[in-house]
Amino acid sequence: MTFFASALARVTPKPAAQTRTLRAQSEAHQTLHSTLKNIGAHPHGLLLSDVVQRQQRDGLNIIAHEQTPSALLQFLSTFKNPFIVVLLVLAGISAITDIWLPWQAGHAAAPASMIIILTMVLASAVMRFIQEYRSTRAAAALKAMVRTTATVTRRSAVQARPHTQELPIEQLVEGDLISLRAGDMIPADVRLVESRDLFVSQAMLTGESIPVEKKHTPQPFAADANNLVDTPTIGFMGTNVVSGTATAVVLATGNRSYFGSLAHSIVGTRSQTAFDRGVNSVSWLLIRFMLVMVPVVFVINGVSKGDWVEAFMFALAVAVGLTPEMLPMIVSANLAKGALAMAKRKVVVKRLNAIQNFGAMDVLCTDKTGTLTQDKVILAKHVSTTGMNDVTVLQLAWLNSTNQSGVPNLIDQAVLRFAEASPKHLDALQQWQKVDEMPFDFVRRRLSVVVANASGTHQLICKGAVEEMLAVSTHIVHEQQTIALTDARRISLLTMARAYHQDGFRVVVIATRDITNEQRCEQYSSSDEHSLVIRGLLIFLDPPKDSANAAMQALHAHGVSVKVLTGDNDIITGRICKEVGLAPGVALMGSEIDLLDDVALRQKVEERTVFAKLTPLQKSRILKALQANGHTVGFLGDGINDAPALREADVGISVDSAADIAKESADIILLEKSLLVLEEGVIKGRETFGNILKYLNMTASSNFGNVLSVLIASAFIPFLPMLAIQLLIQNLLYDLSQLSLPWDKMDKEFLAKPRKWDARNTGRFMLFMGPTSSVFDLVTYAVLWFVFAANSPSAQALFQSGWFIEGLLSQTLVVHMLRTQKVPFLQSTATLPVLLMTGSIMALGLYLPFSPLGPMLGLEALPWEYFPWLVGILFSYCLTAQLMKTLYIRRFGRWF
User: Fold this and answer.
1) What span, in angstroms and rounded, lies between the C-alpha atoms of 285 and 266?
2) Largest CB tally within 10 Å, which of 9, 15, 453, 493?
3) CA distance 552 to 560
4) Active-site annotation holder among 176, 197, 362, 367
């Protein structure tokens, strides 16, 4: 999500808190002539030379939060992690104990431990930086595919004719002349030069869902920060045009805009997502475990060995071994890999953490028109109130559609296509000229134009939803006679419309009102929509997308329930639902939602599938109710009225053909029409999350097993079971073996239903599976102690070498044993990258005691007789781990 949508979804701006005067504030009460003079603008657009100078002076039209950090800052940010901090603290302590204290005593320094720790820190930071740097660039490249543009008028020279072009909003400068129409996001703070029926949604700034009217004509205004957004002549960056058209001049861009001043106050305060909170909850669980276990290891070794310095060093090594320092890199690599994989499926991921939310999604709320249905609506019939084809109804519809200035929506496009296919019906309409317009909004659910003929007669032509049109109509044309609209005739019209709805058609009513000379005026308003005469019905076919049925069934099979949130009526929505495989049940209407409090709504949203006749605010209420019930909610929409819901959802999904504001509000954008990519996105999200959980659970259980083994060995063995440097090397190799996990696959059983973070299960997993490896560590101790006589300080190198190999190999086998709930290698085999990485680490571990590096690490070559014992121990461990895995799944009903 861009900063426009994400920041304002979380922050309620307080204009009164501003401490500096904004350009919009200073120009709000000025005349247009004064404003143009003050900012050096021209009514026909800026010169290109002026544009270059202003770009150099003011920079790009972007908010600071959207700027990609420099490579240096991004690298430094990789150290901002609790585990990295712990490692750096341990390295500092090691520097004191291994370098500074020996140097003070005149002994040789032993910096190996500190070097190993810092190497691990640097390796983790570098790998994370490389991955995040690549993913940041990839995300930026993907986001560039859906960049928002503005229509700008400029001049190449003083006498040259102005030329209009579409440019990325980043290239706008102060003084630019831009054009606005319904569906556009206002790209900067602007002063209106001309406007017509302009209604702007300022919900992103004020939280008010009702659009406000903006006019270019000056109004009395006190320029203070408290009511700046109410200024009728000023449009603000980040708001969006609901209806009408306008020409405006740019007053301020980027951080100098009203929005930019608000954004400046919330720099660095981005709210944590559910994904971030989940990662941190598990991270701190492991850190708390380390803070408890390390002092215990230190005390036991100090008491049993009598050498407190050596005990401290060993406890320090244990602390390093317990720290999952690769967690940040593993998480980042998984998310970036998921984003790039989805990009190949023509899915743009604007926010990486949305991938996990996609996988955790258990409820998908979707708009109907343009998402479940095709983008192309067909006008099937134009009928009179008796149900017969009527050319007059088509002519009135054409006049209404061709003279409205809002977004040419699917209904208008269908009318225009149908009428233009029969141009003979349009010849008589050329005399009519537009006078005014009452734009469509999502409360009235109708649109009116006023036209005048050659004699100056004004006529209001209105089209809209059936119920809303009946509410403002008093008469009806029946068999070419205008008669009163009685209750019986209302019921007859509703019955006719309902019959069409049940057959899968959409119905729009056409009505007119002749305006007398006394009633004529230059500007009309929605209050003039009264005493209408119903002329007929427009019957549209809005078929479902070919992929909708398969997509709905696939989502259901993966544990995602689908709910339809639409502004359309319940009957036609129910019909579409049946065609795409959804059981509509009884719809909950918008009027009913207004009567429910939040508690009652939370119950209703669980019971219903279809929510009809909704306003944008009601859509948001439904999403919040589902989230309050513990659901991870996705929303799929493409219209202006879907923007609030897209911001409220845990994962907002839109399409590339959506309105600007919908794309700005979304986290994920689909670049192809097929809805089957939703299923692919869910699976990829769950696969990404599953591979992260693998690392966490493997690390937690392995670390706990190691500490338990160390505690037992420290209590009974007269020497350290493993040197600190050996423990560090073992931990480093084990972490390297898991670097390939982002390229692993997940069991189908895991992908079958939504998954969420559960720190409790991680702790339970650690305590249940960790002791399993400790049992076989103890068996290794016994074999080395009794069979190979490694039972004295003089033979400690043999003991440590034997346990080093067994510990590393058993830990690496854990990757295969725990990565799946099935039997590894037989029922589920890891991917080739995992096999190659773990195999290489095991081979390196076996080689180290025999290598020239071995003596430097305190290792020695093992007798060949030890290896049959080793194979037997490892094989027994695998069998036992599989048994414990089966018991765990039976006991807790889950694996990860």
Assistant:
1) 30
2) 493
3) 9
4) 367
Q: Which residues have C-beta within 8 Å of that of residue 432, sequence separation ≥ 6?
A: 399, 451, 452, 453, 459
605 CB-near residues (< 8 Å, 6+ apart) = 563, 588, 622, 625, 626, 629
Q: Which structure tokens are listed for 97?
A: 């104990």
Rounded-to-integer distance, Cα 113 and Cα 391, Å: 89
Between 728 and 791, name the one with better pLDDT.
791
83 within 8 A of 324, measured Cβ to Cβ: yes
Beta strands in 637-749 (DSSP E): 651-655, 668-670
Q: Which amino acid is at 474?
A: T
Question: What does the pLDDT read at residue 696?
Answer: 79
Answer yes or no: are the C-beta atoms of 24 and 230 closer than 8 Å.
Answer: no
Q: Which residue has the tokens 């810092």?
A: 118
Rounded to an integer, what is the distance from CA 858 to the centroid of its chain? 51
| Residue found by looking up tokens 């209404």 in the block | 400
User: How far are the Cα atoms of 72, 150, 334, 390 from residue 79, in angstroms, in the given order?
Assistant: 12, 39, 19, 73
For the stretch 588-596, contacts whose Cβ atoms lie closer than 8 Å and that sit 24 or more positions apart, written own/partner, are 588/612, 589/613, 590/614, 590/615, 590/618, 593/618, 593/621, 593/622, 594/618
% pLDDT > 90, the chain: 26
Tokens 């692919």 correspond to what residue?
680
| Residue 58 annotated to the active site | no
Token pair recorded at residue 838: 């773990």
Segment among 298-307, 473-482, 643-652, 824-833 with least mean pLDDT: 298-307
How many whole angstroms separate alpha carbon 557 and alpha carbon 648?
25
Identity of the amino acid at 173? V
pLDDT of the residue at 779: 93
Strands, E, within 169-235: which ranges? 177-181, 189-201, 212-214, 234-235
Classified as helix, coil or strand, 349 is: strand
Q: Alpha-carbon distance 375 to 369, whole Å?
A: 8
DSSP track, 34-72: HHHHHHT--TT-EEHHHHHHHHHHH--S--GGGSPPPHH
What is the four-CA torsion angle of 148, 151, 156, 161, rounded to 10 degrees? 170
Sign of dihedral through CA atoms 334, 335, 340, 342? positive
Q: Report the distance separating Cα 26 and Cα 229, nearest Å.
A: 13
Q: What is the pLDDT of residues 600-622, one digit of tens each?
A: 999 999 999 999 888 777 888 99
Q: What is the pLDDT of residues 533-577, one digit of tens each?
A: 999 999 988 788 888 888 888 888 889 999 999 877 788 788 888
Q: Phi and psi at residue 561, in whole multiples of 5°?
A: -85, 145
Nearest to 313 by CA among 85, 83, 117, 120: 117
Quote the pTM value.
0.66
Tell me what percent of the chain is helix, strand and coil, each rounded to the nearest 5: 55, 15, 30
Q: How many CA atoms lie within 13 A of 624 on its CB side?
A: 15
Residue with tokens 């702007």: 200
Cα gap 439→460, rounded to integer Å: 13
696 contacts 689 by C-beta, under 8 angstroms? no
**Residues shown for the chain:** 896
Judged by phi (left if over 0) then psi (alpha if -120 to 50, else beta), residue 622 lies in: alpha
Alpha helices, DSSP H, located in 345-485: 354-360, 391-402, 410-420, 466-471
pLDDT tens column, 287-329:
777 777 778 778 877 777 677 776 776 676 667 666 666 666 6
Helix (H, G, I), strand (E, B) or coil at 151: strand
- Report CA-CA distances (Å) from 679 to 346, 646, 651, 704, 725: 13, 19, 14, 37, 48
